[in-house]
Amino acid sequence: QVQLVESGGGLVLAGGSLRLSCTASGSFFSINTMGWYRQAPGKQREWVAVITRMGSTNYADSVKGRFTISRDNVKHTVYLQMTSLKPEDTAVYYCNADIVYWGEGTLVTVSS
Predict the structure, then answer these.
(1) Sheet containing 67-72: which strands, arranged edge to edge?
(2) Taking the alpha carbons of 94, 64, 23, 99 in that order, is the dihedral positive or negative?
(3) How do beta strands 67-72 and 57-59 pair?
């Protein structure tokens, strides 16, 4: 079993930055991939970024070059550094482990 807790969301002006954190408890080292998804109001949840146990990363085209996902295996934490934020990045951001486990989400609001 894996439990995921996100933090770091908030209100930011367009062009600003935020760093989201996702701390895992339980069998962290059994996790292969961890990712971030987001769900904007009235829209379906969409994939944002993923990182494997070995550190390989991949990003949705909409965030490529602006967001960076990283993983600290000592702290059992995955980060999403978000820069050059746009109003369309406003969403609840969810952490995910191996597609199976989900956090409760953290709200990011980008004001224009």
Answers:
(1) 2-7, 18-26, 77-82, 67-72
(2) positive
(3) unpaired
For 34-92, the pLDDT digits (tens) are: 999 999 999 999 999 999 989 999 999 999 999 999 999 888 999 999 999 999 999 99
Rounded Cα distance, 51 and 68, in Å? 10
The answer to whether 96 and 71 are in contact (CB under 8 A) is: no
Tokens 């070995």 correspond to what residue?
54
For residues 37 and 1, give the distance between their C-alpha atoms in angstroms, rounded to a whole number. Answer: 20
In terms of C-beta density within 10 A (0-12 exposed, 13-18 middle, 19 or more buried), how is residue 60 classed?
A: middle
